[in-house]
Specification:
- Pfam families: Pribosyl_synth, Pribosyltran_N.
- It catalyses: D-ribose 5-phosphate + ATP = 5-phospho-alpha-D-ribose 1-diphosphate + AMP + H(+).
- Belongs to the ribose-phosphate pyrophosphokinase family. Class I subfamily.
- Involved in the biosynthesis of the central metabolite phospho-alpha-D-ribosyl-1-pyrophosphate (PRPP) via the transfer of pyrophosphoryl group from ATP to 1-hydroxyl of ribose-5-phosphate (Rib-5-P).
- It is an enzyme of class 2 (transferase).
- There is one protein chain.
- The chain is an alpha/beta fold.
- The protein has 2 domains: about 170 residues, Rossmann fold, CATH 3.40.50; about 140 residues, 3-Layer(aba) Sandwich (Rossmann fold), CATH 3.40.50.
- Helices cover about 30% and strands about 25% of the residues.
- The strands form 3 sheets. A 7-stranded mixed sheet has the order 10-9-8-11-12-13-14.
- The longest helix has 17 residues.
């Protein structure tokens, strides 16, 4: 980067230190010293080992497994920074946990995504920087600035560099993912298709494909992979419908439960994810490809620090 970022105070908590280090390297700064200690009863103690008085501080922490522990670390850190007279407290949240709890679907149900937003604001956060929220409307849950970054241009660039933008169909694994699939299809100048799954959590005889996939490569595109069942099922349906090679792509690799076995034993030729959530070695498998989102966050942090517009991050030509 051409800009002088040496005044940035960048902190990493425990959820994703590898991504934090990559962001620091891209910015050309050192991670600031902090000590995070967990007592035997689960309580968290944080000591900031450098002065932050009047500084623009950026804290990197995904709200990922263990979700509640990582969220509480972030809350304690925000409080520590506020009490240490930090100038601004910017929360960089690559994966925003609880994002799927964004509305009431049953009586007496909480809207936990809004509760998380309230907690962050009340603790003293001045800004949130995040990536590929489950629903973009979550930005409206905050009364502070939210920079909602996108991984789609980096994902599209991966497919272009590997020749997967020719004779390809972008596939939504269900109807709720159609908008995402259309956005990637526009980047690749490709048609879209939809896996029309009805009345079942898994594929069955009532599952159809809307669109022409026979004889084409397919990219199944979603914002996250949790249990892996939806992605694996969609791949099976596409192969049955005559697709050639099938690829799965998502931003957030949650990989809970039996996800790894679901994916590595599926019809997917490759599973492309990003490093918003740190991937343990035991969850890696042969078909897995991990793209780093560090350059996206590093550029956003630099622009915010210099009081410049982040608009260039939403311009495909600037970002890939």
């Amino acid at each position: 980067m051409n800009q002088d970022n040496t005044g940035i105070k960048l902190f990493a908590l425990n959820s994703n230190p590898k991504l934090a280090q990559k962001i620091a390297d891209d910015l050309g700064v050192e991670l600031s010293d902090t000590t995070v200690h967990h007592f035997s009863d689960g309580e968290i103690q944080i000591n900031i080992d450098t002065s932050v008085r009047g500084c623009d501080v950026f804290v990197i922490q995904s709200i990922s497994d263990p979700v509640n522990e990582n969220f509480m670390e972030l809350m304690v850190m925000i409080d520590a920074l506020r009490r240490a007279s930090a100038g601004t407290i910017n929360c960089v949240i690559p994966y925003y946990g609880y994002a799927r709890a964004d509305r009431k679907t049953r009586p007496r149900e909480p809207i936990t995504a809004k509760l998380i937003a309230n907690f962050l604001t009340m603790a003293g956060a001045d800004r949130v920087v995040t990536l590929d929220l489950h629903a973009g409307q979550l930005q409206g849950f905050f009364n502070i600035p939210v920079d909602h970054l996108l991984a789609i241009y980096s994902q599209a660039d991966y497919f272009k560099k590997n020749g997967l933008d020719k004779d390809v169909v972008v596939v939504a694994p269900d109807h709720s993912s159609v908008k995402l699939a259309r956005n990637l299809a526009e980047c690749l100048k490709a048609p879209i298709a939809i896996v029309d799954k009805r009345d079942s959590k898994r594929v069955d005889k009532n599952t159809d494909v809307i669109g022409d996939v026979k004889g084409h490569q397919c990219i199944i595109f979603d914002d996250m992979i949790d249990t892996g069942a939806k992605m694996a099922d969609a791949a099976a349906v596409l192969k049955q419908a005559g697709a050639t090679d099938v690829y799965g792509c998502a931003t957030h690799a949650i990989f809970s439960g039996n996800a790894v076995n679901e994916l590595k034993n599926s019809a997917l030729k490759e599973v492309i994810v990003t490093d918003t959530i740190q991937m343990p070695e035991e969850k890696k498998f042969e078909q897995l490809r991990i793209l780093s989102v560090a350059p996206i966050f590093a550029k956003a942090i630099s622009l915010i620090y210099h009081n410049q517009s982040v608009d260039s991050l939403f311009n495909k030509n600037d970002n890939i």
